[in-house]
């Protein structure tokens, strides 16, 4: 199991600050000048920084803000309970606040000190405490809730035990208190970074794992790149949970310590000292330490954290064997190495994600400005720093602290320096991962990827790097394991900006003063060594985008804090998309150096002779670079040549290309690629896309190993050479948007290896009728949205068929003529009124794209596609219904099907199916999921069951405005009944709960009842009525769901309901939400405590925030035998709220149809008790009754 440690919302937590070790609460008139003063001095002398309130001034009705803040920022609260402590309402307010924090934060330690009072007097409020409360109850008659809170706080703190003076001397008693506080601080609290922004969200998953109650010995790994906050997260988790264990130890800096003399032995000794409360034994070697650790952990449940582990030997030496540990023990490792331990040795993995932009700006602001946001004059300066740091807390902390208190000029200068020279402190931390690589092979592979392959498709990169003599597959995995490289969901190689800068810094160290002697050069340095001809045999790779250099130089752009965007020059895109734009630091790389300025375009004079000494050059990536003179000195060992904007009409015969594996000449001026036959025996990829002057492809028979030929958007291409039939390894041919291409070569049928043929946008192409028949693996694509190199599926030989644009589809076209081996079929935007031919013959089809077609229905035989996993129907605006779909379906995307009304028989509905029905504004039913019916067509008995007895008095023209979360639409409609999840709801205007709702509660507090027994009827449900309105102030909240919660506290059952629709009340008006909940036979019973609450979250995309004004509930009983002997079904499918389809874990049900699988998983992970057990509940009809009333009183 792997978990992402990232924030679920954009809001960050408030900074974690601990100003004091201890907060001292006491009654001044009792102990201020005696016992408390002596205790305060002893604590301060012991190095325990303590807050003591010396202010005798009357503080008003509540705790002063300073006192409240001091309580929140103290690790331990020491409460000196003396005879007259309860006589002070200020002391009681302090105590209530202290105990509230303890209830909310398990890590907060409270130490009661009973000074000349009996703990039982405090617990029971007798003696002097009783006398105090007589006065309080008389004085605070109107605030009895507060008095009850004081009583609870006193009872709770007395239950903690604490320290009793008894017959001891005060001096010894004080020393015992000091030692107790010291032990609590030593064992429980670790120092955490002063501003741990976002820590709550990132620790939550680990806390749940630590609190799961498992009897297994658990091992968790927290991993991520250097500086991302692994140690901070581990410390926070340790602080919050160490008290739950009988022993605990946090071993910091394991990697660094283990590298020192006897380092592992020292770590073993520290562990034993922590577990044995400071009792240390001599250890002379690792084996002896392991034996003693075994003895120490075999008899107590422990929590052990090993921070910064980089080798499994360290784990084994300190932890030993898991079977030694007491069940329930937990072990946490932090590391940069994802696969540090074998899979069977780890229970769960937590990957730490970068801070988001909002969190990053807040963290930077705390360090730079001492507040949660930038000073106004520095806002524009702060944003590029945040982008540069890329969400890495260490970088934000270092840069923020270094820039704190500096002038704008200093900020600008510092940012300019960062463009050229990365911060040394940050690089020192990041480089640990690089230095930990086991050999020079992996180090060089990382440097190559960081410089030339960022953002490139993984398979494409492997093709090139393998031919550069790297062992790429295993090498990339090693880099991924150490969090130096990531593979994103698009199968592209991702290297963090700071790691890219680190790689450049390492390369710069090869020759600080002479770029021509470095192994890899880019942009400005590349231009300099080419213009000055200083390159040497050391250079293996060059990247130069001359148009970008000239753009930045001609604009004379200096950093001014503006929001101007510049093209990224470092993110050379190896895919077929154009360069992306990003307002980051990279555009400044060439604007601040006066020593090596770039000339204007008319001054550029680069000569091929500049390559003369670069005989080891293997990678050459150029953009809009022009050379004069001949090509005799052009590099002879190139593997990858990308020369965008190649300015010649044809490739000169003198240009040596025989060693090339990839030749990319996109956006060239080529009219004739080469004359005759050219032998390129190693070439695997040829990309001539966007070469608008090209009218015909060359003879490519001399390219026997060519696998991919990309001719995208060659608008004047008329002919593809017949030599394509000679290529036995060609698997991919892209002719997209070759608008003047009239025909395909007849010999294409001889390309038996061809798997992908993209013809979308070839509007003048005439298809040969026999082309498909002669080649069963031939494929085409229509209006593909994936670039030829960017999709990993294309590199994995994904079979794809599609047809050209709609105006050239032959009338005889039929899917029956398509290859039966097809795995993916795209017929998007083909103007199809129906699917021509027998779709069922495509038995291997996994992906079917019918987007943008005016089809009204799908053929019934689509259910025969037994391997179909994805069905795309977006923008099929005439589609009205869907037939039964194959059980293999995993994804149904049907957004913007504006005519779609009903969907039946969806497979895998509650298991694995992901759906998208956004903007399907007419959708009113998904079978087994929900139905929406007008009130006028709803069964009368069903309406009465909801408690709406006077529904006939509601005007037939009554309308309400509704939000539908499944379709993300808002519209005004006649009154409707929503049926889903065993619940039926109706929304209508009104502000009074009907009289027959017996149990009520004002506001949004929890409504609790005890279910009374009923002799003749069994409980089958619950009716609820909510009065709600718009909140006058729009307040931000992390909750975006409307949650109705019902829990049976007695039986440990809970149902959380989030409806797919909600009524929108008018301004300054109220709305009623009536709902009927159908329960299983054993869900509710006499004597059960039932709690009900409603939480409204801000509506996404709407300027709307709702709040509960009043809540009413009424139990519903089933009649054992009705007069007519008939039973009516409440819902189609006869389901209850306890359907196993909605069960998240034992006794917990999440009744929600408007979230996808990932969102439901996230909801589940945010709840407690993550166990799961399916159950099947009995379904029964029911009727509405009042408790304790005669059945005849019910109108049913």
UniProtKB/TrEMBL annotation:
<dbReference type="GO" id="GO:0061809">
    <property type="term" value="F:NAD+ nucleosidase activity, cyclic ADP-ribose generating"/>
</dbReference>
<dbReference type="Pfam" id="PF01582">
    <property type="entry name" value="TIR"/>
</dbReference>
<dbReference type="Pfam" id="PF20160">
    <property type="entry name" value="C-JID"/>
</dbReference>
<dbReference type="InterPro" id="IPR044974">
    <property type="entry name" value="Disease_R_plants"/>
</dbReference>
<dbReference type="InterPro" id="IPR036390">
    <property type="entry name" value="WH_DNA-bd_sf"/>
</dbReference>
<keyword id="KW-0433">Leucine-rich repeat</keyword>
<keyword id="KW-0675">Receptor</keyword>
<dbReference type="Pfam" id="PF00931">
    <property type="entry name" value="NB-ARC"/>
</dbReference>
<keyword id="KW-0677">Repeat</keyword>
<dbReference type="InterPro" id="IPR035897">
    <property type="entry name" value="Toll_tir_struct_dom_sf"/>
</dbReference>
<dbReference type="InterPro" id="IPR027417">
    <property type="entry name" value="P-loop_NTPase"/>
</dbReference>
<keyword id="KW-0520">NAD</keyword>
<dbReference type="GO" id="GO:0007165">
    <property type="term" value="P:signal transduction"/>
</dbReference>
<dbReference type="InterPro" id="IPR045344">
    <property type="entry name" value="C-JID"/>
</dbReference>
<feature type="domain" description="TIR">
    <location>
        <begin position="18"/>
        <end position="185"/>
    </location>
</feature>
<dbReference type="InterPro" id="IPR042197">
    <property type="entry name" value="Apaf_helical"/>
</dbReference>
<dbReference type="InterPro" id="IPR058192">
    <property type="entry name" value="WHD_ROQ1-like"/>
</dbReference>
<dbReference type="InterPro" id="IPR002182">
    <property type="entry name" value="NB-ARC"/>
</dbReference>
<dbReference type="Pfam" id="PF13855">
    <property type="entry name" value="LRR_8"/>
</dbReference>
<dbReference type="InterPro" id="IPR001611">
    <property type="entry name" value="Leu-rich_rpt"/>
</dbReference>
<keyword id="KW-0378">Hydrolase</keyword>
<dbReference type="GO" id="GO:0043531">
    <property type="term" value="F:ADP binding"/>
</dbReference>
<dbReference type="GO" id="GO:0006952">
    <property type="term" value="P:defense response"/>
</dbReference>
<dbReference type="InterPro" id="IPR032675">
    <property type="entry name" value="LRR_dom_sf"/>
</dbReference>
<dbReference type="InterPro" id="IPR000157">
    <property type="entry name" value="TIR_dom"/>
</dbReference>
<protein>
    <recommendedName>
        <fullName>ADP-ribosyl cyclase/cyclic ADP-ribose hydrolase</fullName>
        <ecNumber>3.2.2.6</ecNumber>
    </recommendedName>
</protein>
<dbReference type="Pfam" id="PF23282">
    <property type="entry name" value="WHD_ROQ1"/>
</dbReference>
<dbReference type="GO" id="GO:0003677">
    <property type="term" value="F:DNA binding"/>
</dbReference>
<keyword id="KW-0611">Plant defense</keyword>
<keyword id="KW-0238">DNA-binding</keyword>
């Amino acid at each position: 199991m792997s978990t992402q440690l990232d924030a679920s919302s954009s809001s960050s937590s408030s900074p974690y600050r601990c100003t004091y070790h201890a907060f001292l609460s006491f009654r001044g008139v009792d102990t201020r000048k005696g016992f408390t003063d002596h205790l305060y001095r002893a604590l301060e002398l012991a190095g325990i920084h303590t807050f003591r309130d010396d202010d005798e001034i009357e503080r008003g009705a509540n705790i002063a803000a300073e006192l409240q803040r001091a309580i929140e920022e103290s690790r331990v609260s020491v409460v000196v309970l003396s005879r007259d402590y309860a006589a002070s309402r200020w002391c009681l307010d302090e105590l209530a606040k202290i105990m509230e924090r303890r209830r909310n934060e398990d890590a907060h330690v409270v130490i009661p000190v009973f000074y000349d009072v009996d703990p039982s007097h405090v617990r029971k409020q007798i003696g002097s405490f009783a006398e105090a409360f007589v006065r309080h109850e008389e004085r605070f008659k109107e605030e009895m809730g507060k008095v009850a809170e004081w009583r609870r706080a006193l009872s709770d703190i007395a239950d903690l035990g604490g320290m009793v003076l008894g017959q001891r001397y005060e001096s010894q008693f004080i020393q015992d208190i000091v030692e107790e506080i010291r032990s609590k601080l030593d064992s429980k609290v670790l120092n955490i970074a002063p501003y741990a922004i976002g820590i709550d969200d990132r620790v939550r998953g680990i806390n749940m794992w630590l609190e799961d109650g498992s009897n297994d010995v658990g091992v968790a790994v927290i991993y991520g790149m250097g500086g991302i906050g692994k140690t901070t997260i581990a410390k926070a988790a340790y602080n919050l949970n160490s008290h739950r264990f009988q022993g605990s130890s946090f071993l910091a800096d394991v990697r660094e310590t283990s590298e020192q003399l006897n380092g592992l032995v020292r770590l073993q000794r520290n562990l034993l000292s922590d577990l044995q409360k400071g009792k240390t034994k001599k250890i002379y070697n690792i084996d002896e330490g392991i034996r003693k650790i075994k003895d120490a952990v075999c008899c107590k449940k422990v929590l052990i954290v090993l921070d910064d582990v980089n080798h499994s030997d360290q784990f084994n030496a300190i932890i030993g064997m898991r079977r030694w540990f007491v069940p329930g023990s937990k072990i946490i490792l932090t590391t940069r190495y994802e696969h540090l331990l074998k899979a069977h040795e780890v229970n769960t993995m937590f990957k730490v994600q970068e801070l988001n932009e909002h969190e990053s700006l807040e963290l930077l602001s705390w360090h730079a400005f001492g507040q949660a946001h930038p000073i106004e004059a520095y806002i524009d300066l702060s944003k590029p720093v945040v982008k540069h740091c890329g969400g890495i807390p260490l970088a934000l902390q270092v840069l923020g602290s270094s820039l704190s208190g500096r002038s704008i000029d200093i900020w600008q200068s510092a940012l300019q320096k960062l463009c050229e020279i990365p911060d040394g402190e940050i690089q020192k931390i990041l480089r640990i991962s690089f230095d930990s690589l086991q050999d020079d092979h992996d180090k060089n592979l990382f440097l190559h990827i960081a410089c030339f392959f960022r953002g490139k498709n993984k398979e494409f990169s492997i093709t090139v790097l393998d031919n550069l003599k790297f062992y790429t597959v295993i090498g990339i995995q090693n880099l991924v394991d150490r969090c130096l490289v990531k593979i994103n969901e698009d199968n592209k190689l991702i290297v963090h900006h700071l790691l890219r800068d680190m790689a450049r810094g390492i390369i710069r160290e090869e020759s600080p003063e002479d770029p021509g002697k470095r192994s890899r050069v880019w942009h400005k340095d590349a231009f300099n060594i080419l213009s000055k001809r200083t390159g040497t045999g050391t250079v293996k790779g060059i990247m130069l985008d001359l148009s970008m250099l000239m753009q930045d130089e001609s604009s004379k752009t200096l950093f001014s804090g503006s929001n101007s965007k510049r093209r990224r020059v470092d993110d050379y895109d190896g895919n077929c998309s154009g360069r992306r734009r990003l307002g980051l630091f990279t555009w400044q790389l060439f604007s601040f150096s006066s020593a090596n300025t770039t000339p204007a375009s008319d001054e550029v004079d680069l000569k091929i002779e500049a390559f003369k000494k670069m005989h080891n050059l293997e990678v050459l990536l150029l953009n809009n670079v022009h050379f004069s003179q001949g090509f005799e000195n052009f590099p002879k060992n190139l593997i990858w040549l990308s020369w965008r904007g190649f300015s010649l009409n044809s490739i000169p015969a003198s240009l040596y290309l025989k060693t090339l594996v990839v030749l990319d000449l996109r956006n060239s001026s080529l009219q004739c690629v080469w004359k005759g036959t050219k032998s390129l025996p190693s070439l695997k990829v040829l990309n001539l896309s966007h070469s608008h002057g090209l009218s015909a492809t060359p003879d490519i028979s001399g390219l026997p190993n060519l696998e991919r030929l990309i001719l995208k958007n060659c608008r004047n291409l008329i002919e593809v050479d017949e030599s394509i039939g000679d290529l036995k390894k060609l698997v991919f041919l892209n002719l997209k948007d070759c608008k003047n291409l009239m025909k395909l070569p007849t010999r294409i049928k001889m390309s038996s290896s061809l798997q992908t043929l993209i013809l979308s946008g070839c509007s003048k192409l005439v298809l040969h009728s026999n082309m498909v028949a002669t080649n069963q693996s031939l494929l085409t694509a229509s209006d593909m949205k994936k670039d030829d190199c960017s999709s990993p599926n294309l590199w994995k030989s994904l079979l794809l068929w599609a047809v050209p644009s709609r105006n050239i589809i032959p009338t005889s076209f039929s899917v029956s003529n398509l290859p039966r081996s097809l795995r993916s079929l795209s017929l998007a935007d083909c103007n199809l009124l129906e699917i021509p031919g027998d779709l069922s013959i495509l038995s291997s089809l996994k992906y079917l794209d019918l987007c943008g077609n005016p089809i009204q229905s799908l053929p019934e035989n689509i259910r025969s596609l037994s391997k179909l996993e994805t069905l795309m129907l977006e923008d099929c605006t005439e589609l009205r219904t869907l037939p039964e779909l194959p059980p293999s379906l995993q994804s149904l995307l049907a957004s913007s099907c504006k005519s779609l009304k009903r969907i039946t028989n969806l497979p895998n509905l509650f298991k694995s199916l992901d759906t998208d029905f956004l903007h399907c504004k007419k959708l009113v039913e998904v079978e087994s999921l929900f139905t929406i019916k007008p009130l006028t067509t709803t069964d009368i008995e069903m309406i009465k069951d909801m408690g709406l007895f006077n529904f006939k008095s509601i005007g037939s023209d009554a309308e309400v405005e509704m939000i539908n979360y499944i379709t993300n639409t808002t519209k005004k409609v006649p009154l409707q009944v929503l049926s889903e999840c065993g619940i039926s709801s109706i929304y209508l205007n009104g502000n009074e709960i009907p009289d027959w709702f017996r149990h009520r509660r004002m506001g949004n507090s929890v409504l609790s009842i005890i279910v009374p027994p009923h002799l003749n009827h069994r409980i089958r449900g619950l009716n609820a009525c909510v009065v709600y309105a718009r909140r006058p102030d729009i307040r931000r909240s992390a909750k975006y769901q409307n949650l109705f919660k019902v829990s049976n506290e007695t039986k440990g059952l809970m149902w959380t309901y989030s409806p797919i629709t909600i009524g929108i009340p008018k301004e300054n008006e109220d709305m009623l939400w009536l709902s009927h909940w159908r329960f299983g036979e054993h869900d509710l019973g006499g004597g059960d405590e039932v709690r009900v609450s409603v939480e409204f979250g801000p509506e996404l995309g709407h300027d709307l925030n709702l709040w509960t004004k009043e809540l009413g509930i009424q139990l519903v009983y089933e009649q054992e035998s009705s007069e007519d002997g008939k039973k009516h079904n409440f819902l189609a499918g006869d389901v209850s709220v306890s359907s196993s389809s909605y069960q998240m874990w034992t006794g917990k049900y999440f009744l929600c149809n408007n979230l996808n699988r990932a969102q439901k998983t996230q909801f589940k992970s945010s709840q407690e008790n993550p166990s799961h057990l399916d159950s099947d509940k009995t379904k029964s009809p029911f009727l509405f009754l009042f408790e304790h009333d005669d059945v005849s009183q019910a109108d049913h």
